[in-house]
Design goal:
This protein is mainly alpha-helical. The chain has two helices and no strands. The chain is elongated.
């Protein structure tokens, strides 16, 4: 009987997950957040590909 409860709980969690994903995809993007670029000056990850690309566009060194 415990096995059936486990399956029911897993199914309910899966259904909630799918429902929330669909609701999230249906939510419109807030105004002003359509085309965000990363602000890599505060990030401490030196070997990030986004950081290298961002800094090369600004003309700054990544080191």
């Amino acid at each position: 009987m415990h096995f059936i409860y486990a399956i029911l709980i897993a199914g309910a969690l899966g259904a909630v997950n799918i429902l929330l994903l669909r609701m999230n995809n249906a939510t419109p993007v807030p105004e002003g957040c359509e085309d965000l670029t990363p602000d890599c000056s505060a990030c401490g990850i030196r070997d990030c590909a986004l950081r290298e690309q961002y800094m090369s566009q600004k003309g700054e060194r990544t080191e």
